[in-house]
Amino acid sequence: MLRYVLRRLLISAVTVIGLVLVTFLVVRVLPGDSAAARLGPEASQADIETLRTQLGLDDPLPRQLLDYSTGLLHGDMGPAVSTGRPVSDELLDRLPATIELAVAGLVIALLLGFPLGLLAAARPGRPSDALARLFAVLGSSMAPIWLGLLLIFGLYSTWQLFPGPVGRLPIGTPPPPEVTGLYVVDSLLAGDFALAGQSMQFLFLPALTLGLGASAAVLKMVRSAVLQTADSGFVRTARAYGVPGREVLLRDQLRNAMLQVLTAIGLVFGFLLGGNIIVERLFNWPGMGRVAYDALGSNDLGLLQGYALIIGTLYILLNLVVDLVYGLIDPRVRLGGSSS
Amino acid sequence: MSSTTFPARVEALRRRKSLVVGVVIIGVLVVLGAIGPFLLADPSERVADPFLSPSASHWFGTDSYGRDVFSRCVNAIWLDLAIGVSVAVLAMVIGSAIGVVAGYLGGIVDDVIMRAVDILMAFPGFVLAMILLVSLGESLPKLAIALAIAQVAPFVRLVRSKVLSERELDYVAAARVSGARWPRVAFRHLLPNSIRPAAVQLTLVCGYSILNVAGLAYLGVGIHPPTAEWGVMVAEGAANMLTGQWWTAFFPGLMIAVTVMALHFIGDDLGGDRQ
């Protein structure tokens, strides 16, 4: 197990280093000039030069990379040109809001995708299967922005079931005392159940927008994972002993397919993190995606670079955890060694 | 295959419903996109009052400038399909070439390529495309390139894993002993036999790209107004959704959903996922 953990840790570390390199290269080496982009078309050549020197953009490339990575090791991503605050502060302040939304989206995706995937796999080829798969196709065919607009139009504008897209709480409501930064958790910790309910209401529509799309992916993975076990020896044996089909499905096939669900969580989380920039803008959700959107507007490449780096690192960390849990549960994984 | 009778072929197609539905939808869209622009109102001209709701004369209503939403949707068909197809083909060409090389050569080359693929996969595709586009500067070809790079990784993986099993077969050994160098073996012999898994991915990526273009348009990068493009139209119409003019964003979004759904149907069939 120790060897497996070390190996996985090493691979993740290499991937993170690669991530730093790629974000660095994309932003510094590609033709775009972040100083010129920042100052806009009216800027004089002299102003651009001054800013370039300030930002260290005229140093030789290896020097820039060295400066950048030493900064990173100290948690410093440099200043955000558009706001003047450090990039890391800009983004990490908003991390809890993004995590809260992504986790809520993941919960919805699992609650929808898991039972439907099981239902589809229970009778492959039958109407229940066809319906579940139609749901999956529909879910993955809608642009997140469009789905969000439809939900806002139906559940807010028309039926007033949920609050409108104004952020995490009604305008003017003070947030709960900060412990974790997740409003639902914090207000529960503070014993304020009304506030917890309110934040959940505000959380619901953006989370549903993210979760519906992701549930399609979960559904497909659960379905194929369960169906794969259908041909295995233990299922045939259970059937031969006369165990009813439903029991085989829920007790044997499902338990063996659970491992796949872990992988699904890892993949879906990436999807949720990638989609959040659109959903956060649509619902005025003050998360990291919102910062990235503002950075797009003001051409702040450094801030965008930080955003990509944090999102990528989160994704790598999550997949590391998934792999470690996988290895803990399934001896074949940790003893099998390299599969790639 | 070619000797089967006509009724047998019809019967075979009847069992591949999702393929038929997908191909018919895409076919109708292509035809509509080809003849529509000659019959319909100019997509960039003000043809009526703003915000007319859908009616017999304006099927999808009019938008905030009084432009005909139906005409704009139809005019966008070829643009959106062209973006989707070119991104998918570009990603497949790059990805399969890399995948064949990695799988056939193995060793260090394979290790380095697969680590690079892991790094690419660490970005959600949408974020990667966004960053690339902002750094490259915006134009239609650059949009296609940025979206394609973001989708290369799955092609590399799919083709590589097929090559790993394929390269042990006799025909590869035969090619090698006949004196072919490795590029010839890899690209002339292995690639054609290993590309099938990538075909499924091709239809999916085509759909993702249309979705991603819409997402990028909403963030103000990629394609901009007043271009008649579905994503741009959804983005432009987003504000009207809250004030009640739902049709300005609804119909272009519906076009996206129908198109991507049709591509999914085709992909499901090609993936052998039929009933």
Task: Name a few traits of the molecule.
heterodimer, A: 340 residues, MetI-like fold, B: 275 residues, mainly alpha, 75% helix, 0% strand, globular, MetI-like (chain B), transmembrane helix (chain B), membrane (chain B), Peptide/nickel transport system permease protein (chain B), transmembrane (chain B)
Largest sheet of chain A: none
CATH class of one domain in chain A: Mainly Alpha
Average pLDDT over all residues of chain A: 83
The portion of residues assigned to helices of chain A is over 70%
CATH topology of chain B: MetI-like fold
Indicate the proportion of strand residues of chain B.
under 5%
Number of strands of chain A: 0
Gap between N and C termini of chain A: 18 Å
Strand content of chain A is: under 5%
Q: In the CATH hierarchy, what is the architecture of chain B at level 2?
A: Orthogonal Bundle
How many whole angstroms does the radius of gyration of chain B measure?
22 Å
Radius of gyration of chain A: 24 Å
InterPro entries (chain A): BPD_transp_1_N, MetI-like, MetI-like_sf
Keywords (chain A): Cell membrane, Membrane, Transmembrane, Transmembrane helix, Transport
Pfam family, one (chain A): BPD_transp_1
GO cellular component, one term (chain A): plasma membrane
In short:
Chain A contains 15 helices and no strands. Chain A is mainly alpha-helical and 340 residues long.
Architecture blueprint of SSEs:
The complex is a heterodimer of chains A (340) and B (275).
Chain A: H1 2-29, H2 34-39, H3 45-55, H4 61-73, H5 87-92, H6 95-122, H7 127-141, H8 144-158, H9 183-189, H10 193-229, H11 233-240, H12 245-282, H13 288-297, H14 301-329, H15 331-336
Helix pairs in contact in A: 1-4, 1-14, 6-7, 6-10, 6-12, 7-10, 8-10, 8-12, 9-10, 10-12, 11-12, 12-13, 12-14, 13-14
Chain B: H1 6-15, H2 17-39, H3 69-105, H4 107-122, H5 125-136, H6 140-150, H7 152-166, H8 170-177, H9 182-194, H10 196-218, H11 230-243, H12 247-270
Helix pairs in contact in B: 2-3, 2-12, 3-4, 3-6, 3-7, 3-9, 3-10, 4-7, 5-6, 7-9, 7-10, 8-9, 10-11, 10-12, 11-12
